Amino acid sequence: MIKESSSDRLLKVIIYIVLSLFAIYCVIPFVTVISSSLSSESSILRDGYSIVPREFTLAAYNLIFKDDTIYRAYGVTIFVTVVGTAIAMLVTCALAYPLSIRALKYKNGINFYVYFTMLFHGGLVANYLLISKYLGMRDSIWVLIIPALVSPWNMFLMRNFFKSVDESLAESAKIDGANDIYIFYKIVLPISLPALATVGLFYAMAFWNKWFEAMLYISDENKFPLQYLVMRIMNNADFANQLSAKISLPNYVVPTLSTRLATTVVTIGPIIFLYPFLQKYFVKGLMVGAVKG
């Protein structure tokens, strides 16, 4: 057993101290957001933001959770995130795996077709007409899911990872009589957990943050996703403050600053809690796009 020298121990201590300080530096902004969201509007305007709540109040959260609309929005966003991520991963992997096989016919043409969509877009008007008129998905919750099922960037990440899988595994399985579908689900996917977790997290964050599509295509308040609803809450709060200033209402101030911070906590909280469970796979998959381009 190799004995650790004093210089190695000192270096390790220095590395731990530096990493700990860096971790604290990264955590402080989030703690400040939570603390300031629990502070009164007047204390923020007077003293600025702080890591300890000043004049503790739940006014911002009361404004956000004043009725059950926010809970419905949470339900919509959770449904869109879970269902959208699951279907998007299925479609992405089903497209990426065949494109990773050398013997596939017309592989280069299909790759170019997918890559072409990353460079050029039909435009907002064409996209609006396609979704609302021809596909008939206006005011449907599926408008938040179906148009975003395949991300070319994520597809190429998965394809590159599948290309790094040893081809001898598939060849051995074929000799034993396995077909491509069996090889894909029983052999390739189980050893692709780092890539699946990484790309799945990318999809989940994209679906969780959906708001622009809701603004364009959804008018039913019961189908508003969380991000779009909190944006409307903030716009209404700003409008209320502007109106009260114009008509000189005494002591009428909507806590817009603390509400902005509270909406940040409300919207990113679930994703932050999900990340620790995927961290070990996510770290392994950070280099997924660097293998066998």
TrEMBL record:
Pfam families per the UniProt record, alphabetical: BPD_transp_1
Cellular location(s): Cell membrane
Limits of the ABC transmembrane type-1 domain: 74-258
Transmembrane segments: 13-34, 73-100, 112-135, 141-162, 183-208, 257-278
GO cellular component: plasma membrane
Keyword check for Transport: yes
The species this protein was found in: Paenibacillus prosopidis
GO biological process, one term: transmembrane transport
Database matches in PANTHER family: ABC TRANSPORTER PERMEASE PROTEIN MG189-RELATED-RELATED (PTHR43744), POLYGALACTURONAN_RHAMNOGALACTURONAN TRANSPORT SYSTEM PERMEASE PROTEIN YTCP (PTHR43744:SF9)
Annotated keywords: Cell membrane, Membrane, Sugar transport, Transmembrane, Transmembrane helix, Transport
Name of this chain's protein: Multiple sugar transport system permease protein/putative aldouronate transport system permease protein
PROSITE patterns listed in its UniProt record: ABC_TM1 (PS50928)
Bilayer topology: Multi-pass membrane protein
Entry similarity comment: Belongs to the binding-protein-dependent transport system permease family.
Native organism taxonomy: Bacteria, Bacillati, Bacillota, Bacilli, Bacillales
